[in-house]
Amino acid sequence: MRTTIRLDDDLLKSAKRVAHDTGRTLTKLIEDALRHAISSRTTKKARRSVKLTTVSGRGVRPGVDVDDSVALLAFMERPHGSS
C-alpha cells in the first residue's frame, strides 16, 4: 500500500543513511521501525510475583464496614483490645 508521510528533514536524512548503511530500503527501515514500536507497545512486560501475607481468622470483625473508609480508619486507630 502506498501512503504519504511528512518527516522532519534531519530525521529523513538520518533514516536514509541508516537504510543505506544496513542495506535496506527506506520503506523497509520504516516498516521495521513501526513493527518494533507497535510490538513493544503491545507486549506485556513480565511482572514479578508478589507474595501476600495472610492470617487465619473469621473475616471482618462485627461492626466493621470495609466500604466506609472513615469508620475503618477510626477503628484501626483505636488502641488494641478496645472494641
**Alpha-beta content class:** mainly alpha
Largest sheet: none
- Terminus-to-terminus distance: 72 Å
State the shape.
Answer: rod-shaped
Q: Percent of residues in helical segments?
A: 40-55%
What's the average pLDDT? 86
**How many beta strands in the DSSP annotation?**
0
Order of helices and strands: HHH
Gyration radius (Cα, Å) is 29 Å
Low-confidence stretches: none
Count of separate DSSP helical elements? 3
Q: Report the sheet-strand fraction.
A: under 5%
What do you see in this structure?
This protein has 83 residues and is mainly alpha-helical. It has a domain of 34 residues. The radius of gyration is 29 Å and the shape is rod-shaped.
Please give the structural blueprint.
Elements: H1 9-22, H2 26-42, H3 69-77
Which properties best describe this structure?
3 helices, single chain, 83 residues, rod-shaped, mainly alpha, 48% helix
